[in-house]
Amino acid sequence: MLSPLIPLTLTVAIATLSHADTVVIPTSSFDSYADLETYWNYLYPWGSDHNGSARMVGNSTDHSHISVANGVLTLTATPTSGQGTSSESPHLTIDYFSGTIYAKDDITVDGTDVVGYVVEGEFIAPTAVGTWPAFWLTAVNSWPPEADIGEWKGTQQTWFNTFNTSSEVKSTIVAWPDDGEFHSVKAVLSSIEGDSSDVTIDYYLDNVLQATHVGADFLGAPLYLIIDLQMEGSSGSPGPTGTTTYQIRNVQVTKVTS
């Protein structure tokens, strides 16, 4: 019951101030290359290769595989040969050049100053055998933790994955709409009152809650946010013989502070 000495409007204002939202990556980050380079870096945090058969290519003057126009980021994979093997395990033969970016700011829920994050975007994701686009968080210092907000492994499905250890993985797999239109995925990371190590992660497809996972030891762990078009590997092979595109728009990252 409200105290008669405290006006209702003041009470609402106090409640509103209990948490503050700060947009750290706005939906305009793909409006131009200047905007892109304000908020994102080219390639993976560790270089051009990862666990598939695509080598990432792109920089401030080479936009053949990482391009922006009209608020849409397009990652493009094209077949190649004679490139040797990936420098990252499992060291697959490089069959494609493709594109990846990662956010300049890490995402860290510490439970004190930062009690949560909302990470969201809209996607047209390829789902042919051998295509492996993703929108994901992964540990800066040591893997895991990892949270896959969207992962499409060569099927008309998206995977919401939470890696607590290399073998302890929670996966929720849902159908991905087969209409060639943009659809949204979102993760809401929140600290847990009285828990000094874990966070909850709510995963959404088109703003409908699909799953709630517990991220063990995510609290205080800095995470990279990565958008990539990897190929083959876990998505099967052989991959496409022609050009593959992955389109992304309206990515927004919001920090929730106490």
UniProtKB/TrEMBL annotation:
GH16 domain residues: 18-258
Cited InterPro entries: Beta-glucanase-like (IPR000757), ConA-like_dom_sf (IPR013320)
Keyword hit for Translocase: no
UniProt signal peptide: 1-20
Key words, A-Z: Signal
Highest taxon above the source species: Eukaryota
Gene Ontology MF annotations: hydrolase activity, hydrolyzing O-glycosyl compounds
Signal is among the record's keywords: yes
GO biological process, one term: carbohydrate metabolic process
Protein name listed in UniProt: GH16 domain-containing protein
Lineage, highest ranks first: Eukaryota, Fungi, Dikarya, Basidiomycota, Agaricomycotina
